[in-house]
Amino acid sequence: MTRITPLLHLAAALLSIFFTFSAAHSNLAYIIIDGSLYHGFDPRPGQINRPDRVGWSTANPDAGFVGPANYSTPEIACHLSGTSTPAHAPVRAGERVHVQWNGWPYGHPGPVLSYIAPCERTTDGCGSVDKAELRWTKIDNSGPGFINETGGPPGRWSSHVMIAQNNSWSVHVPDGLKPGPYVLRHEAIALHFAKNRGGAQNYPLCINLWVEEPVSPPTGGTVAPFSLAGGVRAMELYKEDDPGILIDVFQTLTTYVVPGPTVAAGAMPVAYSMQAQSVSSRDGVPVRVQGTKTVPFVAKITAAEREFRG
Ligand SMILES: *[C@@H]1O[C@H](CO)[C@@H](O)[C@H](O)[C@H]1NC(C)=O
Ligand SMILES: *[C@@H]1O[C@H](CO)[C@@H](O)[C@H](O)[C@H]1NC(C)=O
Ligand SMILES: *[C@@H]1O[C@H](CO)[C@@H](O)[C@H](O)[C@H]1NC(C)=O
Ligand SMILES: [Cu+2]
Fold it and tell me: Quick one: average pLDDT of 119-124?
């Protein structure tokens, strides 16, 4: 017994390190649109991922990050080995997509960003897009409201706003966005090691959307078309020495330059004060895209999945 005890202590210490690190990571649990829940992809071993998930799959067993070493590679688009899915979540221009993360650690402060890219040259919507060719337009910068708040450094970041809403974030799908298939790229950047070159941690989540016309046109006129003209490829989003990427967040900051392009005109991100949790009332029915039409995605759910979901 006495000989085992130190080993048990060691095991406990190792386990606690393991859990500290695994808690330090996250992925996409699901999204909610107007009360309907659509499944994400969980990269951790042993997780059952439903075939009708709208989140891209990744080869990322620790649900970890993409670093600046990959800013010039397509890996930064939709996470490591990001692979699209045939399933798209239907949404109307002007609606909100509520993105539910699988947790977020308080000690990973940073901005939360969202981008959209149209899938134009495919017949299955975003199902077979080339992620390196997608052109991303920024629609949410998470706002610079954190500077000069009490409690810092590191102060109150978008990631803390996200944690306060059960690790979730609401994204406004731009009014005037042309109907069609899009990839939503939602991303948190953790800056706790960002003082060191290459130390920032990007967590991009890619989600396929099928954007439809609003139910009714707004009262009193038409909505201006939302322009995607400034879209850039993923490899052009960030540089390892951007001021918002290579930064010591544990010193008092008077300014912070959110990395990446500027938010497109007319995007209307959801303000901090309007961020809120969302609860689903039903499972959503994703769609497959066939040219300009869609068909409901009827997933075969195995007994194991049913068991797993309770
Ligand atoms: C960069 O991408 C490669 C290929 O997926 C991966 O093995 C590596 O861990 C990534 N490194 C970082 C820092 O993102
Ligand atoms: C909070 O998020 C988790 C997923 O991380 C989810 O399982 C849970 O249902 C959420 N709670 C509420 C009240 O939405
Ligand atoms: C924060 O405080 C500094 C110094 O007082 C000031 O220059 C800066 O404009 C403030 N930033 C914001 C966002 O209020
Ligand atoms: Cu982490």
Answer: 92
